[in-house]
Each structure stands twice: as C-alpha cells, then as structure tokens.
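Is this the right way to post structure tokens for a design question? Let me know if I should format differently. Anyway, here goes:
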C-alpha cells in the first residue's frame, strides 16, 4: 500500500466522534439526509421544461421567464461556499433543518406565485435554502462512514447528484403536461416536511461538534466578509454569463461582457485573498492534497458531462424530432433505471478496486455513449436515443462514487465541511460551464452549417431546381396557384435545410463532448493509489 499523504497521520484517522448517526444505523441516516438533497438537485432541472408554460401563464416572454432558472442558480452558487461556515457557527443539524425549512416554504411560495416577479423572488429564497443541502449532506456522510465504507455510502448520495438531474426533465414534463407547472414546486412541500420530521427524529448533532461550536462562539465570530463578497459576486456574475450568454449573443451584449469581467476579477481576487486570510471562508490550502485537487477538477468535468447532456438530449428530441416535453423526458428514463442498478454496484466495487481504474473504465463507457449520440440522424428512433443515453447513465456512477471517496483521502476530519463546500462549488461551476459550452457550440455550428448549405439553394444548382419544381408541382396538384406553389416549395426546402443544419450541429456537439472526455481522462492518473479497504485510517467500521 502506498504511503498515505498527510491524511495518513493519526490526526486524520477516522473516528465516530463526528458521526451524525448517534445510536442509529448510519445507513438509515444516509437515506434520511439524502431525501432533501435529492429534492434540491431535482429542482435545478425540473423547471427547465416548464418555462414556456410559466411564461404563458404569467403573460411574460420566454426570455423574461428564464430568470426563474437564473435567479435560483445565482442564489444557489452564492450560498454553497458559505455553507461550511454557516453549519460550523449555527450547528450542522440546525443549519441543515433551517435550509430544508426555507426551501420548503419558498417552494410553496413558488407554487402559489401570482406574478413573475414574486416567483423570481421566491426562487432566490429557494436557492438560498437549497444551496447548503448538498455540501452538508456530503460532509455528514464523510464524517459518519469510515473510508472503507464510503463507496457504498456515496452510492446512496450519488442518487441525489446523478439520478435527480436525469429524472428532472421527465417529471417536469409529466407534471406540466398532465397537471400544471405550479405542481413542480408544490410537490416539494410534503417531501420537505417529511425530511424535517425524519432529521429531527433520527439525525444526531455530535458532542464534539457542539464543543467546537461553543469554542468558536467564545473566541468571537469572525466572518470573512470580503472573501464572501468576492465569491458571491464572482459566482453570481458567472452564473449570469453562462446562463444567459447564448440568448443574449454572448460578448456582443454589454451585460455579458460586464459579467465576465466582474466574475473573472472577483474569483481570482477571492483565491488570492483566501490564501492569506487568517480565517478564510474556504480553506484553499486543501488543494495541497493532490487527490482533493484532482477530484475537484474531475467533479467539474462530471458537471460538464452530466448537466450538459441532461439538458442537451431533451433539447435535441424536442427541437429536431418534435417530441413533447413528456416524450423528451421518457427518452432519459432507461438511463435513470440503469443508474439505479449500477449505483449500488459502483459503491461495492469502490471498496475492492482502485478508484482510478473504475473511473478510467467509466470515461471509456461515457465516450462510447457520446460517440453513439454523434451518429444520430433525422430518422433516429426513440429506442436508439434511450439506448445511447443508457450507456452514459451506466458509466457515470463508476466515475462519481469512487471519485468522492478518493477526494477526502488526506483531508483532516475537521475540514470535511469545507471540502464538501468546495466540491459543491466545482459541481455547480462544471454544470454551468457545461450547459453554456454546449449551447454556444451548438449556435456556432448551426450558423456554420446553414451558411454552407444556403450557398447551394440557388438556380444554378440542378438538384435544388429539380427539388423546387417537383415540390411546386405537388402543391399545384393540390390546388395552389403557380406563384403560391413556388413560394410554398421554397419555404419547405428552406425549413428542411434548417432542420438538417440543426441536426448536424447536434452531431458536432456530441462529437466535441466525446473528444473532451477522451482528452481529460488521463488526468485520473494523477490520483494517488489509496487503500481500498482496511488500513489504519479505516479503523472503526460502521455497524448496522
């Protein structure tokens, strides 16, 4: 076994002193705290397919309705870096329950919103409540399970991060088509109340954490105000830039240019500031642990792939193939079922194989799925789409579960909350960048293909002339006047050309994502070989 990095010292050995299980089974706790995290991650994807319905019912434009998504993402991104400090100061369980309560109440307000302005404000509150749930959930699991059992525990948590974005478009489409968009928010209310009652009854606040909190209060609270302001502005404007870049034509829009400059300056300034701050908001020195640094980068890659394609595949089926929102969501259903099967398997294998072996295999499977998607055509069947997506869904658990387990090798136990917050920031950044990247590339490739194909729609092209007159003749036989028939035929050919150009653009993006996966995969070799089970830092196996 390779010598452990700094985490191999006695100070970094896992003990149950920080466990959230108390006298209960850790597996019960893992299931309970994953409920609200699943609800929060699901909410980032479920509203996407309902925007047109929201815009219509609120007498607003689609562009105005997109702020329903943007406002949530901004608030979410701003709170995640602060989640570790907030949970340390107010108590992990107390902060977790307060976040669930705020998320639940704001979900009710979203569902009952009488206007778009009210809905956007409620979504901001919802994002604030949801921002801390995933990092605190992850920190609880790391503190509750020893390293030898973390793979299995992270397979439970993986359902929240991986399965929720996959189910979001399907649930959003079904609820919107069959009932009303209001219910995509109202369904959070009973789930939130269930989560609150279960957390209150079963989740423990360890005595060690209480003592640490009291000691922190006795020394006087020191909040990194300047660091918080920098990261809030940096991530907030980054979300604005990535979320609205495509529809606002990127850097031709003054808001996007300003957002890019402010975001870049603030994020760079934040990193520099945190390295020298006496009590930093985020402990940037954690990146000295190689596994944690590599894992954070890879989690961004997972965000690019998962969130980029989760939005992109339904978009392809709706825009190119004319699927309804429900049909588009159903195309992802097989992938969700495969994830449910492979997630526990990934947890079991994580304890038996080196993480980087599983992750390299996972990258290979994901690359195969993207290659299959790059060969889609206008005549692609529903089964073929679902099958290609299933390959991808089967590979991601074997990437995510061992990665999270490996990320905390060498991280001191009292820094798990900080580490979880930074991993949460990485996941959100990757998701935002992934969505923006695929949309920007799609728009550019569509312009490229249209420009090339339009050059052939002219009288000197015998193929175009033959198709034009054949279609015009068909319209004439159905009663259209010659001039009208010619005009209708021209429109029909142009529409077909646009659809074909869009199809080729989607193929190009899938191909680019495949290359991205293949190019980035060698970075996994930088992960240190860690113990798969046993060893000194695996003392204290989980009971139950």
């Amino acid at each position: 076994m390779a010598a452990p990095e700094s985490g191999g010292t006695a100070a970094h050995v896992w003990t149950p002193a920080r466990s959230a299980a108390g006298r209960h089974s850790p597996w019960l706790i893992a299931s309970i705290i994953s409920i609200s995290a699943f609800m929060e991650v699901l909410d980032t994807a479920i509203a996407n397919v309902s925007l047109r319905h929201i815009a219509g019912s609120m007498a607003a434009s689609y562009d105005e309705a997109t702020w329903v998504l943007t406002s949530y993402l901004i608030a979410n991104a701003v709170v995640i870096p602060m989640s570790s400090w907030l949970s340390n100061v107010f108590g992990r369980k107390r902060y977790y329950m307060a976040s669930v309560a705020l998320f639940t109440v704001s979900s009710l307000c979203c569902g009952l919103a009488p206007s778009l302005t009210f809905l956007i404000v409620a979504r901001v509150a919802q994002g604030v409540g949801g921002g801390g749930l995933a990092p605190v959930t992850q920190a609880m699991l790391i503190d509750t399970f020893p390293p030898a059992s973390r793979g299995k525990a992270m397979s439970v948590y993986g359902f929240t991060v991986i399965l929720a974005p996959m189910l979001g478009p399907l649930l959003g489409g079904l609820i919107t088509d069959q009932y009303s968009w209001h219910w995509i928010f109202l369904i959070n209310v009973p789930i939130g109340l269930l989560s609150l009652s279960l957390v209150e009854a079963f989740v423990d606040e360890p005595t060690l954490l209480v003592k640490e909190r009291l000691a922190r209060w006795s020394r006087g609270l020191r909040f990194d105000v300047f660091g918080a302001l920098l990261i809030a502005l940096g991530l907030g404007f980054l979300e604005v830039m990535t979320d609205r870049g495509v529809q606002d034509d990127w850097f031709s829009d003054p808001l996007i240019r300003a957002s890019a400059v402010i975001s870049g300056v603030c994020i760079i300034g934040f990193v520099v500031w945190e390295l020298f701050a006496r009590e930093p908001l985020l402990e940037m020195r954690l990146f000295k642990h190689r596994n944690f640094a590599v894992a954070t980068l890879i989690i961004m890659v997972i965000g690019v792939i998962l969130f980029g394609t989760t939005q992109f595949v339904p978009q392809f089926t709706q825009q190119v193939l004319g699927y309804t929102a429900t049909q588009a969501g159903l195309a992802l259903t097989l992938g969700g079922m495969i994830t449910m099967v492979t997630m526990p398997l990934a947890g079991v294998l994580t304890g038996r194989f080196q993480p980087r072996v599983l992750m390299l295999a996972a990258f290979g499977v994901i690359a195969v799925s993207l290659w299959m998607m790059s060969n889609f055509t206008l005549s692609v069947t529903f089964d073929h789409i679902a099958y290609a997506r299933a390959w991808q869904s089967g590979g991601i658990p074997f990437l995510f579960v061992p990665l999270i387990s490996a990320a905390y090798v060498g991280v001191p136990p009292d820094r798990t909350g900080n580490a979880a917050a930074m991993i949460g920031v990485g996941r959100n950044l990757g998701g935002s960048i992934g969505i923006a990247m695929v949309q920007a590339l799609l728009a550019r490739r569509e312009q490229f293909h249209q420009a090339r194909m339009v050059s052939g729609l002219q009288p000197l092209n015998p193929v175009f002339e033959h198709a034009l007159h054949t279609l015009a003749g068909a319209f004439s036989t159905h009663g259209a006047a010659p001039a009208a028939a010619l005009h209708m035929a021209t429109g029909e050919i142009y529409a077909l050309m646009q659809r074909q150009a869009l199809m080729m653009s989607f193929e190009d993006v899938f191909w680019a994502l495949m290359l991205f996966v293949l190019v980035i995969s060698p970075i996994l070799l930088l992960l240190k070989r860690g113990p798969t089970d046993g060893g000194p830092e695996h003392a204290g196996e989980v009971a139950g």
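Format looks fine. Someone answered above. Worth noting: The CA atoms of residues 65 and 425 lie 25 Å apart. The longest helix spans residues 416-454.
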